[in-house]
Design goal:
By secondary structure, this protein is an alpha+beta fold. It is built from 14 helices and 21 strands. Strand 8 (about 255) and strand 9 (about 260) form a beta hairpin. The longest helix has about 40 residues, at about 25-65. The protein starts with a helix and ends with a strand.
């Protein structure tokens, strides 16, 4: 959540940032946070004054008794009793103001960086890189002004190339390919669990395992320490990374035990560092994890959710970083390059989008989406969101580091990204690599799959 220092240091910027995220009533919410803080401070000042007065009177009681001034001593005792009751009232007022302030802050999203584009929805996202198109030179990530920034590409060129590729041959969608090669049984998943829970069979299951092992191997080579976390978390973990209360209705809730199925490994892995102070020389921390992920996806329907496009349960490898504020931009760039490297090796046409304020997640300060192109569906499919959360999650988590220079304790920056989510990667691999002989397996994946084709 936002820190009070952020708000006091530059209230106007905070409000403008929240408005960029299209957070309704931004100015009113921030003013209420400040009002509650003033109320807490006022109660604290009154408590401190009453405590000082009570201590002064308490010290005089012994002297009065020694002087035989029993009546005055008794009056002083009664006065300390009155002050004690007042102090208890001030404690209640402080606690109520602080609790109301925290409750309100939990409902206020993170402030986006200045580099985030204006916009109300995904239509306003800025496409900044395109790669792996035939006859299209690679456009690499670059840095600008110390922040992550990527060179723009020509959308008209992209659309022209896409149209040419579509015209070359009509491809079968992955749900038809899954049936043709007996890779995925969507109907069986409905029988066992319901829609959005596919059953992978034979070579389909092997492809899943190959991708998981490939992504983990690549993360290991990049210096990420693998974690195998639980796939259920308590409410404190959900609040720590910002899924609660914002996404409560989208998470599967085990009500009897008050536990939640994770929507992403970000939640348990980042919560490893909840209430932890890390020495600066241990940063950045780089973790990765493979987990199943669970999302209710309430209200999803239509062609965009067919097949593997949107599931309730799916496999994903997540990369998570804990870093200093000074180095988090560089960490974010490295994460983007890592995810881009995976897509290059999988030989999938992809693009990178810098998300607009209106399409960013509740917790992110800066987010880039990676999308792969589906040659059968003729559309882009999101496969990764890679985000810098600044101190927003760390403040909720009380995830801090001790500076080497002066031993001061400060909030960390947290970052994470999908590297990668499997369903739409599988969809694109099947659709883009179909041939008359079968489905071609990219060279980098062949050692993990054990063959060069699905036949």
């Amino acid at each position: 959540m936002l820190t009070l220092k952020q708000i006091y240091d530059d209230k106007a910027r905070v409000i403008a940032g929240l408005e960029k995220k299209h957070f309704s009533g931004a100015a009113e919410a921030i003013e209420e946070v400040l009002r509650l803080d003033a109320e807490r401070k006022s109660a604290q000042q009154l408590k401190d004054a009453a405590s000082a007065e009570m201590n002064k009177i308490s010290k005089s009681i012994g002297a009065l008794m020694a002087q035989g001034k029993r009546d005055e001593a008794e009056a002083a005792k009664a006065q300390t009793g009155t002050l004690k009751a007042q102090i208890a009232e001030y404690d209640v007022k402080m606690s109520e103001a602080e609790e109301a302030q925290t409750k309100l802050l939990l409902t206020i999203p993170n402030v986006p960086y200045d580099i985030v584009p204006e916009g109300a929805s995904a239509e306003d996202n800025l496409a900044v890189t395109i790669g792996n198109w035939p006859n299209q030179p690679m456009i690499d990530a670059i840095t600008k002004d110390g922040a992550v920034a990527l060179r723009n590409w020509d959308s008209e060129t992209d659309e022209k190339i896409a149209a040419e590729r579509i015209a070359q041959s009509e491809k079968l969608p992955h749900w038809d390919l899954a049936k043709k090669y007996n890779l995925i049984d969507f109907d069986l998943g409905v029988k066992i669990s319901g829609a959005g829970f596919p059953v992978y069979i034979g070579q389909g299951a092997r492809l899943q395992r190959a991708l998981i092992n490939f992504f983990l191997a690549e993360a290991n080579k990049a210096g990420y320490t693998e974690i195998m976390p639980p796939t259920v978390v308590n409410a404190a973990s959900g609040y720590g990374t910002g899924q609660l209360p914002d996404k409560e209705g989208q998470m599967y809730h085990c009500e009897v035990d008050d536990l939640y199925l994770i929507p992403t490994a970000e939640v348990p892995v980042t919560n490893i560092y909840r209430d932890v102070i890390i020495d600066e020389d241990k940063l950045p921390i780089k973790n990765c994890a493979y987990t199943e992920c669970f999302r209710r996806e309430a209200g999803s329907y239509g062609k965009d959710v067919r097949g593997l496009n949107r599931l309730h349960e799916f496999s994903k490898i997540e990369i998570v970083r804990i870093d200093t504020p000074e180095h988090s931009d560089a960490s974010h760039k490295e994460m983007l390059e890592h995810v881009e490297g995976l897509l290059k090796k999988l030989e999938l046409p992809y693009r990178i989008l810098r998300l607009s304020g209106g399409d960013m997640s509740f917790t992110a300060a800066l987010c880039y989406d990676f999308e792969v192109y589906s040659e059968a569906q003729h559309r882009w499919l999101e496969v990764s969101s890679t985000s810098n959360f600044d101190t927003y999650q760390a403040n909720r988590l009380k995830c801090r580091y001790r500076r080497a220079e002066d031993k001061k304790v400060q909030l960390c920056h947290t970052l994470n990204g999908s590297a990668l989510a499997l369903p739409r990667i599988v969809a694109a691999l099947l659709e883009n690599n179909q041939t008359p002989e079968g489905i071609r397996i990219p060279k980098a994946l062949q050692p993990f799959f054990g063959d060069d084709m699905i036949r």
